[in-house]
Amino acid sequence: MTLSSSNILKRRYKALILDVDGTLIPNLIHGLPSETVCKALAKARKKLHVGIATSRPLFMLDSLFHMLQLSGPSIINGGAQIYDVSKKVFLVEHRIQQKTLKQIITALQKNHVYFYMQDGEKNIASPDIQTIPSSTIQLYIPALLLQQTEQISTLISKFEDISLHKIVSWETSWQMRKMRVVPEVFLQYALQKPTKIKKTK
């Protein structure tokens, strides 16, 4: 006996968690979902919880949450936070350790690499060691030449308490890459202790 896709969703899955850039929206900083995507997710929400998993921070997601009418938990900031859209609260949140952050900033500055830091509310452009915020969720390198990518990856990857994500840059051509640095513990926590999700009515 074969099962319809509807029956499979009802019997096997409780949630649909989707990537954002290049999946729900074009790979653009101000990208928005198409009408087709919005309609498809409206149908999916009737059967199971729909959320997102993205490296974008909350302040870049408000319009997307509204357009897609999402509710309940979503994974944001590269796994550094799990945010409940309905309750507007963070279910999980951890930040980069200051000691690690200072070492990474020193390495980037020595190599003349421009970067942002993100404290959960805004981006902070290339602060020096004396002016870094007391709380940082992720560090973002907006553009690197391809030949720089491996060099910087090697410098940053030696830190065991962070995770490095390499992605195609929004700001420049395909010949460049960008990087996000988030604490490794967030990703492990999300996998080991998943949030209990209620089915959307």
Structure summary:
With 201 residues, the chain is α+β, with helices and mostly antiparallel strands. It has helices at 5-12, 35-45, 62-68, 98-110, 146-157, 184-192, and strands spanning 15-18, 49-52, 73-76, 81-84, 89-93, 116-118, 123-125, 138-145, 162-168, 176-183. The chain has 6 helices and 10 strands; from the N terminus they run H-E-H-E-H-E-E-E-H-E-E-E-H-E-E-H.
CATH class of the largest domain: Alpha Beta
Beta-strand segment tally: 10
Structural class: alpha+beta
Which runs of at least 5 residues are low in confidence (pLDDT < 50)? 185-201
CATH superfamily of the largest domain: HAD superfamily/HAD-like
Cα distance spanning the termini: 29 Å
User: Can you summarize the main beta sheet?
Assistant: 5 strands, antiparallel
* Average pLDDT level: 81
Rg over CA atoms: 18 Å
Return the CATH topology of the largest domain. Answer: Rossmann fold
Helical percentage: 25-40%
Reported CATH architecture of the largest domain: 3-Layer(aba) Sandwich
Largest sheet: spatial strand order: 7-6-8-10-9
Treating each run of at least 4 consecutive H or I residues as one helix, how many helices? 6
- The helix-strand sequence is HEHEHEEEHEEEHEEH
| Percentage of β-strand residues | 15-25%
Categorize the overall geometry: elongated
Number of domain modules: 2
